[in-house]
């Protein structure tokens, strides 16, 4: 294990002197290849596309949270000069509930289609009902307002607690609770029940000397990416379509759009635009099928761009939810049992990440007797989409708050209590899997040694700590490494770069090839230029696509060695690869051939040189653990919270590009702080979203936060050639608990509801 | 014999609540076929929305993976990510 204290590095790039980890390029900090274009405005994002003859789309959205659509009248809109096409749900194929994406996570195309454009019923404020395309955006927006929709308004149900009531209004009359036996015959808003159990926590709890128990609640929050959703679609004469879109997966866009529009994937090409943040929220589709259908009907390329208001009303927030947690411990701090019940709001269609909350809440702890019960509940809010470490932050908030309370009761330092009970190699998680070598204990130890943790606090100040866990995943990735005529290298993958992955791909290719990273150009290719890759998400790209890049680079080396052997007239096994050159093993008088040397004679030795790899990394994604420390000051007069100091410590495996790893930790912490203190969807009693912009939906900005310090604990993952672990999900798991514990400790009262607005804090202080 | 653990919800529906089963199998498909012989319909339930852990390795996308004589095989909720 090695430690890197972040923020002391200036990010001035690779100096060629190698790193302390034994690698020449891995672990260095070159400037990201896409960086200059992004900061100078040259990069093309989803809304930047412009095509010959392009027209513009606008979406008609429901002003009601729950209503039946009785009639849609397009007459007035069609009379407006400049309008070229209108569409409604009737223009799309009718899908059945059994239409699902095959595979481990059976995504429902039936639900997705009805989310993209409503059929007979609207299920949330902002639900798309129809769309129009016109020669200018202004005309399209005006036409959208002229489309008359007649509704029968229904009573909305906005929270899991209300939706689970016996006589709650039903969103779907064909939804029957899964996970209960026998399957109910009566429809319900409860989509699924998930239960995980190890040992017998009820019996074990009886042996506890101390028990802490509590209820916690959180609100719906949005991923808050800066770039709104945008795309353009263009039909060719042969019926094929090109889609330009900003997303976390071009192949995902292609597959989902094809299915919803009844087309073959071979007819759709998706060209990935730069992406201005995703955080999980761009792992699904909203506009693409609408743009495609409008383009088809109008015969013109159609661009569609969401406003911020549309993003907030109609795209994937993450679930709000409630948690009931109970933890029992012996006097010496040994945990004996834990239970957790989670109720997550899925939004308008099933699929909250509640099962993942159940799996992750207690993961940092070694508990032999533990149970988690989860409820997936539909409500009249936008369909929840993935958000970093889906499901984990809410569960961790409850468990980590209870751990803090327990530490107080026992009179034990909260990090010491966590260390005493930390999950380690061999610990069985509640979902039944034993961990390999993990860095959980290392993170806790590193946290305890930080200057931050050992600095005294002042008046009205509090410190909170919390741990967090995320699985990390692998998946299907492809890569091609192409050697140019001058020996420079192209590394093509199908994985959109949402967190600096192009730099990581270049560094790993450089390390394998022995070519300076400045001579490697990584690019994100379209769906017809590289084989299929899963979307960018789950902290999988540096791990899995990185593996593909390594394999492709090795494949290219094999080709180059073969050519050197041909030139030298020696057997292939007489050629080795060292420091970016082919060398002849048994004859050191033969001058090594560099990549540039071999590239120069490529035509004479068999043509262009490349290496490729198409892999499905089914195992080996090392799990990630982190511990965060937060200091706050609470103004007892106003309830305002100032975050004074924040340190994120995480087992990141080998940090391929430490600056971007630190950036992931800092970004996760910042988003988690916003979740804890400010962010929430505020609805009227009729179910209309009231805060649809960044003025009212308050994400933390730079002036709200101190510099987020980072400590990179590098426990190499044995499942990856360079020891990579995914890093992007874990850092959003601990902040909710860390901030809540800090505020609770500052005011001497337990905060059990997020966000911790000044009003809530004052109410708690005043409660006496 | 591989030790196979199935989710509580699936067990309630197909195996009278028994979550742990000993199965003679050389790969995951063998396990599914063997369990389905004893508990008809369980194969489809285990093939839907579940990842598999063989010992400490979680397989998101599983099919024909081999299992050892003493492997611990667990069907767990599928993992997605942001």
Q: How would you describe the overall organization of this protein?
A:
The complex is a heterodimer of chains A (768) and B (82). Chain A is α+β, with helices and mostly antiparallel strands. In chain A, 26% of the residues lie in helices and 25% in strands. Chain A is built from 20 helices and 29 strands. In chain A, helix 12 runs antiparallel to helix 13. Mean pLDDT of chain A is 95; it is low at 8-17. Chain B has 82 residues and is of the alpha+beta class. A five-stranded mixed beta sheet of chain B has the order 2-1-5-3-4, with helices on one face. In chain B, a hairpin with a 2-residue loop joins strand 3 (50-54) and strand 4. The longest helix of chain B has 11 residues, at 28-38. Chain B starts with a strand and ends in a 5-residue tail after the last strand. Chain A binds chain B through residues 103-106, 178-181, 193-197, 223, 278-281, 283, 353, 355-356, 358-359, 386-390, 431-436, 470-476, 537-540, 616, 618-621, 728-729, and chain B through 5, 7-9, 12-13, 48-51, 53-62, 65, 74, 76-82.
